[in-house]
């Protein structure tokens, strides 16, 4: 059996508060295989965003380890962790966080150029992704000229621009109406499954969750099957 692309092993995370330490994760375990899409469904305040931040190497666990491609990330330098995020992990958030002064094409090209891709190749990849998400003809539009669904599609395309092996999404369609959410999510599934990406998607939408390969939840700081 091949090594999972992402593995969280007994991950712990605690935050300090006026009342003392607040444990959020208490030994969470999770594996993600190539081409697998896992839904993370849990009430607000249970640690979903914290889990995604640890999985994406944005935070370090207080215990346990995060393995990316079979390699532990706990002892890596900040520069090495940044390098992994830039080339291996894609992020999608509920609110698109597009750069308002740049066009749709530029928003997708810039992360690639930051990773060393030439402007020409980055623009070509941006065009390819915009077409895949039904946004041909919108390349030169800035975010303010795009609908909410179009902005989120650009954000998903941006997350996939560097061909990540792992995609982490935090309520990626939570800010969209039902019809738009369904279309955007269908495009996300097609892109992820078509390229063998391992994806962890936090969602409150049970209909979207059922379209994924399996569902997990957080209970008492641990991950369990839903």
From TrEMBL:
Residues 6-226 form the ABC transporter domain. Transmembrane segments: none annotated. It comes from the Bacteria. SMART domains: AAA (SM00382). One of its GO terms (biological process) is protein localization to outer membrane. GO terms for molecular function: ATP binding; ATP hydrolysis activity; transmembrane transporter activity. The keyword Membrane applies. GO terms for cellular component: membrane protein complex; plasma membrane. The keyword Cell inner membrane applies. Keywords: ATP-binding, Cell inner membrane, Cell membrane, Membrane, Nucleotide-binding, Transport. Belongs to the ABC transporter superfamily. Macrolide exporter (TC 3.A.1.122) family. This is ABC transporter ATP-binding protein. It comes from Neoroseomonas marina.
